Each structure stands twice: as structure tokens, then as C-alpha cells.
Amino acid sequence: MSSSAAGPRKILAATTVAAALLAGSAVTSTATAAAAAPVAAAQGCVQDLYIGNYCRFYSGNAMTSRGQVGNRVKEIQALINAATSYSPKLTVDGNFGPATESAVRWFQSRKGLAVDGIVGKNTWSKLRTA
Question: Rounded to an integer, what distance in angstroms lies between the CA atom of residue 118 and that of residue 63?
Fold first, then answer.
């Protein structure tokens, strides 16, 4: 086979492989988006098979309360925004202040939990499945 005939075949093969890869990623993206439907994509939250609702800040369930800062608080704020009808939406700033505490109390009252404004294991569990 001449080298001039091999060139177009290599290009065609590379194009075919690229198209197959793109088609596969489109199918994967669609499946991922469908799985995450219960939580708002705007928050960057997903439905994780093991964790439940997950907004990519924190995957645990440690007790979290007013005055705390960081990724645990961001996760709570994002979950409340994404998985509930609470209004006004919380600022996802990682600061567990009065607005976040009020939202947590609202959430707890609607889920039949003890209304204490503290996100413990039971509140985490309900947030993850809201």
C-alpha cells in the first residue's frame, strides 16, 4: 500500500474514533443529568448513589451549628437551596449565621424533625434525601 493511500485512511480512522468518543460522552452526560434531576443543577448538586443529594462541598454528616464556617456549612446551604422551596435562597458562603439557622429550622419543621437549628445526623439524612 502506498503512503499516500494510508494518510486518508488514518485521518478517517481518527475521525471515526473521535466521533465515537463524543457520542459516548453525550450519552453519559445525559444519563448523569437525568440522575441529578431531583437537585438543582444550578447549585452543582448531584444525586450520588451512596451519599444521596450532594453539592460537592462535604459528603459527611458531622454535627454543624450556628457560628461554624466552612465546606460543611456550604453543603447545607446549597442543599437547602437545591432540594427545597425555601425562600429567599441562601447565600452559599460557608457562614452558619442567622439566615442559615432560620432555613435549617424551617427545613426541620417541615420534615418532622426536632427543631433546634442544628444539623445533626437526622437533619443531614433528610437533606440528603429531600
Answer: 7
User: What is the DSSP code (8-state) at residue 45?
Assistant: -
Bridge partners of 95, per DSSP, are 69
Q: Which residue has the cell 474514533?
A: 17
Residue 99: which H helix or E strand, with range? helix 98-110
In 1-130, beta strands by DSSP E:
46-48, 52-54
Residue 88's pLDDT band, with cuts at 50, 70 and 90, is very high
19: Cβ contacts below 8 Å, ≥ 6 apart: none
pLDDT of residue 39: 44
Q: Is 112 left (phi over 0), alpha (psi -120 to 50) or beta?
A: left
